[in-house]
Structure formats: structure tokens, C-alpha cells
Amino acid sequence: MFDQLDAILLARIQFAFTVSFHFIFPAFSIGLASYLAVLEGLWLKTGKPIYLDLFKYWLKIFAIAFAMGVVSGIVMSYQFGTNWSVFSDVAGPVIGPLMAYEVLTAFFLEAGFLGVMLFGMERVGRKLHFAATLMVAIGTFISAFWILSVNSWMHTPTGFEMGANGQYLPGDSWLEIIFNPSFPYRLVHTVLAAYLTTAFVVGGVGAWHLLKDRANLHARKMFSMAMWMAALVVPVQIFAGDMHGLNTLEYQPQKVMAMEGHYDSYPDGAPLYLFGIPNDEEQKLEYAFGIPKLSSLILKHDPDAPLAGLDTIPDNEQPPVAIVFWSFRIMIGIGFAMLGVGLWSLVARMRKRLYDWTWLHRSALAMAPSGFVAVIAGWITTEVGRQPYVIYNLMRTADAASPLDAPAVATSLLAFVAVYFAVFGAGVWYILHLMHKPPHAHETGVKRGDTGPIRTAGITPGPTQDPTDQTDQALVDIEHKEDL
């Protein structure tokens, strides 16, 4: 029944589905790892047990989110070989080493210190444990560094040369590939998005428990820290997003045209359309409502500056405007909603009512998942806006796919949907179950099993002996050696 479907479209849907599931976990774990480092650092500096309690409370949640991020990320690399083998063959000499660096640096760093972070609080010194927490936090950032470098190169490819066999080969300098023109902006914008995603989850959890018990000191502390993050970082994120948009206008103008809904060119200043229904067939924005010349003011810092539209781009070079147009507005709308909550919390803080305003707490609770929606909407804007290319202006998406039939791709897509919703649905449910429990004094943190890790190789340990029996056996051994 899948014979009439497009194999390339199905492959794109499969990649979008799996990467969307994957993205929400690193977006959370990157910020949460840094938050845990801050909590442990404050505990070591002040000696206040409330920071240690919050560290242990969120450590359990981090362990599950990190594990699901790793598992969902493994699938992504396989799809390069199954559904996008042509792309892997052509671009492999450039993107392959970058992704290998992510494993050799970030993943090894995280894996090496994660066990100490999760189970070593009572087994190593405080400073060593804090160092392990810092290494895990740094590892999450390094992972984002390499992955975003790969993604940015696909948007703004530089530093390569064409091989005789049609492959993209590294040029004279890897730095030109790694630090391609869009990478610094995308890195800052994405990492700040991860921090804000975590801040609003923490703030939402704190608000939930404040609504049930305003006297909960642990909920007060986490809510206060999250609102500081929202109030201070959201304005920085808006500025970073604006800079990223200006960079996109320079290197990917048709993406910005689709984001703005500009089918026509505007020689005397372009309006900023707030709403409208894009119509690609007729090349117009129907029922448009906008503010005159504001788009030129934002993008060119001059209300009368001309802006080119999609009428200057061939039809087969244009991205799907409707998806880009609305996903961009969802991201922007959530960003300003975050700003509103952050400013609202500042007013409450100045009036010393941060823990008393019920509607602020309800709003923070409603905004708890907003960061996940915003990062997915931003990713859709970025990736769909690059179409019809997988490597911008160099390799079309249609030319990058594996020669697979639609039924084969559809079958694996349905399998992914079933498995992902079952496995990760259970994981998300358990995370929500942990968040539902109020934080309290003397949190236990992550518990290690009584029997230790399961041994899959090596010598199987024998039954545990009583210390007295061990001492008696040692005396027998000594007497036996003396007799010899």
C-alpha cells in the first residue's frame, strides 16, 4: 500500500521524526548538566544542604534524559548509511571526521566521568566529584560544538575542494570547515536555547510544587534560580537570534524570504508580516497582516532599505514557504512569551511576591514545555528553509538519498514510530513521575544496586563470605604455608 508514496519524502519524514525525538533530550541535558554543576558548586562554596538536595533531585532526572539522548542519537548515524548513503559517500570526507571528533572528545569525556558523577558522591572526594560533574557539563557542550559544526557546514559550506570522484574533500585548513560562516551564530543560539529549555522545565517544576505548598524551600530555590535565568538570558537569546538572522540573510537569503513571507520584492522597505497564509502556487501571502517597513528596519536597520523577495528565486530553488513561515513564528512567539514570564518574575521579585503570585506560577507551569517546542520549531525553520538542498547550493536532497523503494522506507518508519513512542514514552512518563515528587531535605540521589553491575564477561564472583569466615580462612592459609 506504500507503492504510491515518495521514497525521498518518507526518508525525510523518518529523519525528521527521529531527530526531533533525539533533539529534545540533548536540549534538556546540555542545560541540566550545567545546572547541576552550578548547584554542586554553590553547595561546595556555601555549605548549604539545600543545594545538595536539589543536585540529587535533578541528578536522577538527568541520568534518564542523558541515557535516552544517547540511545536516540545512535539511530541517527545509521540513517546516514541506510537512507542517505549517497550523501554519506559524497560528503563523508568532510563530515565524517567532525562526527568522529564528537565521539572521541565529547562522548568519551561524558562516558568517562558520568559514572563518577552519578555514583561517586560517597566514594570520592568532594572536589573530585565536582570535577567529574564539570567534565560531564563540558562534554555536553563539546558535543554540541561538533554536531553544530557539521550542521552549519551543510548550510554554509566552506574550506572544501572537489575530488576527481565527485567527493567533497577537506581543503588546506580544517579551521575553515569547522568555523564556517554560520557556525558561531548557530552555536550560541542553540546552546542558549538549551539553557532556556532547562530553565523553564526547572521553573515549571518549581511552580508546580509552589502551587501545592508555598512553604517548600526547595521549590522556592529552584523557581527563583529558573526565573533569574529567564529574566537575564532571554534578552541575550533574542539578540543572538537577531544576529543569526542577519547572518542567514547574507548566506541563505531565500530562507529569510520564506521566513518573512516575502513573495514579492520591496524596493522601498519591506513590511513585517505577523500573520498570513502562504500560497506557493500563486506566489502570494493571502490574508496578510503586517507592519509596514518593519522587516527592513530589523534586517537592514533602515526602514526604507530594499529587500528582495522570492520573485527573484526560481520556483525549483524555493523552500516550502508555509512550513518555514509558521515554524518561525512559533519560535518567535514562544521567545517573547518567555521574555514576558521573565519580566513578570522580576516585577514579582522587586515586590517580594515571587513565591506568592499564583498566576505567575501557573504561567511558569504552562511554559514548562515551551523550550522543547521552540527548539523543534527552530530546527524545522533551519532545515526546511535550506531545501531543496542538503548541502546548500551544492547538493540537492533528491540526489542525496539511497536508491530505496518507498515500501522499505515506510516499513522502517512505522517501526521507528512504534518503538519510539513505546520506549521513550515510558522514559518521559518516568521523568514526569520523578518531577511530580516534591524536592525535600536529605534527597537520596541516584542509587547503586546492592549487587553492583551485571557482569557479562570475566570471572563470576562467588558468594559473599562473612568477615569472620574470611579471617578464619586466612589463618588456615598461613598455617598451611608454614607447614610447607
TrEMBL record:
Bias type Low complexity, positions: 460-473
Residue ranges of the region described as Disordered: 442-484
Main localization of the protein described in the UniProt heading: membrane
Subcellular location as annotated: Cell inner membrane; Cell membrane
Annotated membrane topology: Multi-pass membrane protein
Keyword set, alphabetical order: Cell membrane, Electron transport, Heme, Iron, Membrane, Metal-binding, Transmembrane, Transmembrane helix, Transport
Family in the record: Belongs to the cytochrome ubiquinol oxidase subunit 1 family.
Name of the protein in question: Cytochrome ubiquinol oxidase subunit I
